[in-house]
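Sanity check

After download, print the first record. It should look like this:
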Amino acid sequence: MIDLKAAFDKYEADYLKFDQIENPPSRLPDLCAFLLLGRLVPGTVPIVSAVDHYGRYWIKVSPEDLANVATEADILYLVRCGVCYDDQQEGLYLNA
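Expected structure tokens:
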């Protein structure tokens, strides 16, 4: 099981460095993140759960489920796609 906070903190300098992803399945960083999350933690409900007044799109993926299956490479990929982790809210989000 990976420590999400530590992993997201570790790759903070790679935030939105989408151009460093080799052969992404789409040119859209958010879509690439959603595709990876859908493979790692499959679900049947819409992946965006809410949008707050700060312009954050909250992602409906259980951090615990993600921590159980994600690798460091997966977290780096997500960070490069713009995904953030809020350990206080215990959730993943993208900035608009």
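If your output differs, re-run the checksum step. Summary of this record's structure: The first strand starts at residue 48 and ends at 51.
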